[in-house]
Design brief:
The complex is a heterodimer of chains A (180) and B (541). With 180 residues, chain A is of the alpha+beta class. In chain A, the strands form two sheets. In chain A, strands 1, 2, 3, 5 and 8 form a five-stranded mixed sheet that branches. By secondary structure, chain B is an all-alpha fold. In chain B, α3 packs antiparallel against α4. Chain B starts with a helix and ends in a 12-residue tail after the last helix. The interface between A and B is large, with 73 and 76 residues. Bound molecules: copper (II) ion (2 copies).
């Protein structure tokens, strides 16, 4: 196939750009484990409220001192709808839904995940101090636009600690790597 | 040709009517963004209108217009259709489907949006109607593939026209990817909405939907590419630069459009990160044929501009026929697509996606792609084809000339601000944006007013298009029209091109199947190994 010289240059340039995208994505994803929320774990949505993993909700701390937040989404509220976490500390969110699909989005951060009934979502990220709106970003019915919550991030030294005991049956490890 | 013309015009009629209703529905959304307190404004009305707008624009207007273009292309290739009656059966099935689905939506029984994720549950007529549209389009695929084969046979070692090549590649891509949504409908959603099964697996449904949902994007875009390659250089007064590369481009889309669906599910639980990464790499590859297209089309346009007397480095741009409605619509569509392409690379980026997923950025983005690159090109194409198909001259020409510019302006006002509010975290598809006075939501307010204004300008432009179409189709002066003519390639060797590797669509289809088995085979198998809990239906609308 006879291809014009300039077009050849253009195609090689395009290929080079794509190689750069490939490389940078591979380094970040595989080398540094920067990945979207991809936890694989199932749950019975009809019994989620009493499931040991979700029966006590809110902020808790694990044996190693890691900060966690457990949240259930249902039409049209987040349970709990206000959480307070320490700044510049990795916080791991665990979420599920008892009814339709919702989207947990902490506005102006990279903290978000789909919340799909029958599945447990998990992501880890850290925050700068401030007040954040938590919106539902997946259409879930006529109250979708009203499904919201609040995240308060305080400097780590001022954080009063967890509000909730660790769940009786912590979620199994493995199968995922949260975003950072 | 008279029979084919009638069939094509019938499809264009449905497309134009669906477009008109969908555009009217969009006004509802503009009113919401402008925060106007009108008596009929309610969240029930809003989410119904979002569903109707999405289904009628993205699924009905596009599909019917693409079917019409396909019939015209096939007829021009062979002088006839292979199975004209099957074409009418396709039209009947698909139109019945549209009526069923539209009834369910407009009577508030199916406010599930055009992505219809379960466990939101619509009336069965919604799912059955959309399935009929797909089944009808399969009959169209049959005609396209048979026409392509007949043309190949008739030409021995010469290739079919680039228009027929691209159309056939697109039809094969469509037949393949719609298997995903057909499986979702037939095995999951229809039995479940009829009460035959109690629950569905929402994640499985999402995987099947996006198996279809991303190639759907290319099913929309490829006919616009076909027009840019084969009609635009001709209408602009030039020739097509590097025709053989165009054949490669359509084959690359056929291969790489489908194994990429997880880039719509980056934020989903239940799919492991490594499979999302594989889909990300395939997604990057799919930008290659688009970038090649950008070069080829610009070069073809420069040829046209210089043939028209354009001199300096950029002087040829001014010489292009900006007053020709089809040319103007295509050029403006490309400019908007340029912006949309950059945004798309961000959507598909493995890590950046978490900043924009399901925000206003997303609908800002796809109004530049499907809403401009595709829809605006199709509107321009309607100004070209409808007179030639109906034997009536284009009426209200001044309106047809300004309509693309109004669309361009409206889209800038609508889509760019949505990108900004999206980056500021505003979710998509929300009836109100105030979030009980939250400070972060307050920051969006000034910008959402601009999108509302853009919506109104777009509505005016849409109304002009529908008006030109109706007046031309119903009352246009009957007079002889010039024939449909594809662009001549530049630098064609003496004796013409020979059919080559890129013309072997059957072979490339096999490659596409293999790639999809790799990208989807294991994740789906793995999915079925898990203990899964289904969901009953919910109708919160
Ligand atoms: Cu929601
Ligand atoms: Cu996509």
């Amino acid at each position: 196939m006879n291809v014009d010289l300039y077009e050849r240059i253009w195609m090689w340039g395009t290929a080079g750009m794509l190689a750069l995208f490939f490389g940078s994505t591979a380094v970040a994803a595989i080398g540094r484990q920067f990945q979207p929320p991809s936890h694989v774990e199932t749950i019975n949505p009809a019994a989620a409220l009493s499931d040991p993993r979700f029966a006590s909700r809110g902020v808790w701390v694990d044996d190693q001192g890691g900060v966690h937040v457990t949240v259930i989404g249902m039409m049209f509220v987040w349970l709990p709808d206000h959480v307070t976490v320490p700044a510049e500390t990795p916080v791991t969110f665990h979420l599920t839904s008892t009814d339709v699909t919702h989207g947990y989005q902490i506005v102006r951060t990279n903290g978000q995940t789909m919340v799909i009934p029958g599945y447990v979502s998990r992501f880890t990220t850290r925050f700068a101090p401030g007040e954040y709106l938590i919106a539902c970003n997946e259409y879930c019915g006529l109250g979708h636009h009203a499904m919201a919550g609040r995240l308060t991030v305080v400097p780590a030294a001022e954080w009063a600690g967890p509000g909730t005991a660790a769940p009786a049956a912590p979620a199994p490890e493995g199968g995922d790597h949260g975003s950072h | 040709m008279a029979r084919t013309e009638r069939l094509a015009l019938a499809n264009i009629w449905v497309a134009v009517l669906a477009f008109g209703v969908a555009a009217a529905m969009a006004v509802m959304q503009a009113i919401s963004r402008a925060n106007l307190e009108l008596p009929f404004r309610s969240s029930r009305m809003y989410y119904m209108s979002v569903t109707a707008h999405g289904v009628l624009m993205a699924l009905v207007f596009t599909t019917f217009f693409i079917m019409a273009l396909g019939y015209v292309t096939a007829d021009k290739e062979n002088g006839k259709l292979q199975l004209p009656r099957v074409g009418w059966a396709a039209f009947g099935l698909a139109t019945t489907g549209v009526v069923l689905a539209a009834w369910a939506i407009l009577t508030f029984k199916a406010s599930v949006l055009y992505t219809f994720y379960p466990p939101l549950q619509a009336h069965p007529a919604f799912y059955i109607g959309l399935t009929l549209v797909v089944v009808g389009s399969w009959l169209w695929v049959l005609e396209m593939v048979l026409s392509w084969r007949a043309a190949r046979k008739a030409r021995a070692d010469r290739p079919v026209s680039l228009a027929m090549h691209g159309t056939a590649a697109n039809a094969i891509l469509w037949a393949f990817c719609t298997l995903g949504v057909a499986a979702e409908m037939l095995f999951l959603l229809i039995p479940w909405s009829l009460g035959l099964v109690k629950t569905v697996d929402p994640l499985l449904a999402r995987m099947l939907f996006w198996f279809f949902g991303h190639p759907l994007v290319y099913f929309w875009v490829l006919p616009a590419y076909v027009l840019w390659y084969t009609l635009l250089p001709k209408e602009a007064g030039g020739r097509l630069f590097s025709e053989p590369l165009g054949r490669m481009v359509f084959v690359l889309f056929l291969i790489f459009s489908t194994p990429v669906g997880f880039h719509h599910q980056f934020q989903d639980p239940g799919i492991s990160a490594n499979w999302k990464l594989l889909h990300t790499f395939f997604t990057m590859i799919i930008s290659f044929p688009s970038l090649v297209t950008a070069f080829t089309i610009c070069a073809s346009l420069e040829v046209a501009g210089r043939l028209r007397g354009g001199q300096s480095l950029f002087g040829w741009i001014r010489r292009l026929p900006w007053g020709n409605p089809f040319v103007a619509a295509s050029l403006l569509a490309m400019l908007l697509f340029l912006v949309g392409g950059f945004g798309g690379a961000i959507n598909a980026a493995y890590m950046l996606n978490s900043v924009v997923h399901n925000t206003a950025w997303i609908h800002g983005h796809f109004h530049l792609t499907v809403g401009s690159a595709v829809a605006l090109t199709f509107m321009g194409a309607a100004y070209y084809f409808v007179p030639r198909l109906s034997g009536r001259r284009l009426e209200l020409v001044p309106l047809a000339k300004i309509q693309p510019y109004l669309w361009f302006l409206g889209m800038l006002l609508f889509a760019l601000p949505n990108h900004f509010t999206g980056l500021m975290g505003m979710p998509r598809r929300i009836f109100t944006t105030d979030y009980a006075g939250a400070a972060q939501a307050h920051a969006w307010e000034a910008i959402t007013g601009l999108t509302a204004l853009g919506g109104i300008v777009l509505f005016v432009s849409a109304a002009l298009f529908v008006q030109v179409m109706l007046v031309t189709l119903l009352m246009g002066q009957k007079e002889p029209q010039p024939p449909i003519a594809w662009a001549e390639p530049l630098g064609e060797p003496a004796g013409g091109y020979r059919a080559g590797l890129w013309d072997r669509l059957g072979l490339w289809f096999v490659v596409a199947v293999v790639l999809v088995l790799i990208a989807y085979g294991y994740p789906l198998w793995d999915h079925f190994q898990m203990e899964r809990f289904g969901s009953p239906g919910f109708k919160p609308f």
